[in-house]
Backbone:
């Protein structure tokens, strides 16, 4: 069994959840990973201060696609206020694999784009986990 | 199989880094297009200069400073001799990026104006795109691109058509593409550019370290390349230029060493090449580069090219055994430099590079600082394997095995012997 490319990571990569278009939507954003040129966009529908539904769209490596897919299941129904406070540790723990420093941005791209759409702050998520 | 063994240089023992291992596996280095490894003679020349001959140049009268002067001047002579260039028109820069910026600023701002055009190509590295974008935005000029054909090559007819429009002031293009591997017909292109009254700049980063380059016969007005891809240290690049163009140009960076005299309100410029080398130059790095070029010259650049071309032919053949693998660029080794960029269906290039790393194989993945080219190819990224003098057929075999194992991790079908 591969440490990084675990079955559930490859499963999410090959069949990502909540990918595609969402119409109508209230929020959207598009971000790039400058390391590799990968891009990821998100469309979010909001109801009563919560994410009612969302869709990611874009291309990327197994780590970035699986991270977006896994995060999307957690983000659905989450309060916007909490989304704005999610940090890198949340994502890395959720992903559950040892992410090296060079692949960290792959794992965090989805959170960057979601936070950008919700708060307007599209800076890279930070956290203590390395 | 192509005759790899016959042309093999067998010089790996000259490169100390190959004594390293990673989790018990030897280093399989297939990323020389990013940077080359360094032979012991280069490491030793760099250390020996710092150990025994270190002083600033062009300032001291003491014996040690004279030794440093002599070492720096000798290094420039070696660099000029390596590419058949004139010593005084051989400028040291940090890298090719800085060399191109020198031209874009010092030549471009004086010679490109509103209504003029800068012509580059779709296969350029960002280093040969962004300086021209900035120049064109600033000067109200237009930036146009020569297109690629299906083989990833340029068309001389299209170049002629662009030049006939009469507005092109400079044509800047790669000698060898860092993604496609395409070797451009430099002499044929520069002749047309000059006949049209325009100026040519050639990015030789992927060429000068790997094949015989004679800047005189190539006919480029500006030719840039870099030491760290040519077995030398980082931090030293080279710009060759036609001397009369350099003499007519204002400086790029200003300050110490590049002046003739400085008054309270103005200054006059030093002679070439000092006019374009402000501040303390990269002295030890120049000495190291000189040692690297001595080393390459002993091997002989025709032999280096023959070795890398044979290895590339072998690599193209072996890579074609991987199901779902597609190579970009010209299909035959004689039309390309020593590299192959590729995609594999069902695997992102980053994952490909991560997986082959587990077998100790180093390849590059990403957009290779050529995002417009990636868009032309219709991909976000590619993986790239590139060879140097120290590689052999066994390295390519290791890459092949690592790619096949990687496909298995991803559960892809048809893994072997397709």
Residues:
């Amino acid at each position: 069994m591969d440490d990084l490319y675990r079955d559930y990571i490859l499963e999410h990569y090959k069949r990502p959840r909540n990918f595609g278009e969402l119409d109508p939507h209230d929020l959207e954003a598009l971000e790039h990973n400058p390391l590799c040129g990968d891009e990821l966009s998100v469309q979010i529908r909001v109801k009563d201060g919560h994410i009612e539904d969302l869709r990611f769209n874009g291309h990327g490596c197994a780590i970035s696609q699986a991270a977006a897919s896994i995060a999307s299941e957690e983000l659905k129904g989450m309060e916007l206020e909490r989304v704005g406070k999610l940090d890198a540790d949340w994502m890395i723990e959720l992903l559950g694999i040892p992410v090296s420093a060079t692949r960290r941005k792959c794992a965090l791209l989805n959170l960057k784009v979601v936070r950008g759409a919700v708060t307007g702050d599209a800076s890279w998520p930070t956290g203590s986990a390395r | 199989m192509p005759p790899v063994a016959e042309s093999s240089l067998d010089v790996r023992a000259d490169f100390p880094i190959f004594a390293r291992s990673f989790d018990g596996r030897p280093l399989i280095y297939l990323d020389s297009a990013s940077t080359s490894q360094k032979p012991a003679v280069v490491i030793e020349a760099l250390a020996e200069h710092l150990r025994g001959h270190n002083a600033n140049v062009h300032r001291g009268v003491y014996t040690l400073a004279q030794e440093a002067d002599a070492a720096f001047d000798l290094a420039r002579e070696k660099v000029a001799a390596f590419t058949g260039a004139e010593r005084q028109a051989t400028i040291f820069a940090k890298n090719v990026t800085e060399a191109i910026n020198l031209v874009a600023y010092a030549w471009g701002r004086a010679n490109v104006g509103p209504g003029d055009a800068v012509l580059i190509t779709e296969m350029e590295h960002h280093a040969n795109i962004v300086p021209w974008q900035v120049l064109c935005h600033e000067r109200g000029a237009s930036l146009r691109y020569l297109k690629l054909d299906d083989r990833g090559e340029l068309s001389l007819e299209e170049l002629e058509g662009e030049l006939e429009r009469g507005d092109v002031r400079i044509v800047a293009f790669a000698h060898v593409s860092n993604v496609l591997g395409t070797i451009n017909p430099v002499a044929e292109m520069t002749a047309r550019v000059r006949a049209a009254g325009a100026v040519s700049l050639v990015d030789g980063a992927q060429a000068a370290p790997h094949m015989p380059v004679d800047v005189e016969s190539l006919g480029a007005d500006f030719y840039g390349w870099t030491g760290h891809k040519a077995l030398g240290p980082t931090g030293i690049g080279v710009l060759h230029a036609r001397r009369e163009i350099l003499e007519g140009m204002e400086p790029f960076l200003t300050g110490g060493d590049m002046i003739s005299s400085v008054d309270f309100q103005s200054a006059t410029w030093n002679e070439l090449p000092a006019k374009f080398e402000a501040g303390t130059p990269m002295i030890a790095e120049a000495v190291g580069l000189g040692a690297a070029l001595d080393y390459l010259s002993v091997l002989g650049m025709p032999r280096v090219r023959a070795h890398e071309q044979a290895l590339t032919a072998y690599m193209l053949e072996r890579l074609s055994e991987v199901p779902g693998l597609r190579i970009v660029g010209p299909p035959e080794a004689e039309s390309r430099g020593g590299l192959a960029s590729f995609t594999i269906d069902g695997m992102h290039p980053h994952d490909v590079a991560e997986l082959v790393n587990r077998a100790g194989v180093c390849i590059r993945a990403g957009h290779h600082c050529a995002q417009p080219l990636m868009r032309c190819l219709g991909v976000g990224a590619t993986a790239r394997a590139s060879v140097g003098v120290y590689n052999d057929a066994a390295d390519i075999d290791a890459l092949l095995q690592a790619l096949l194992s990687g496909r298995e991790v991803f559960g892809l079908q048809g893994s072997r012997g397709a």
User: Anything to note?
Assistant: Chain B touches chain A through 17 residues (CB under 8 Å). Confidence is low (pLDDT under 50) at residues 1-5 of chain B. Chain B has 14 helices and 17 strands.
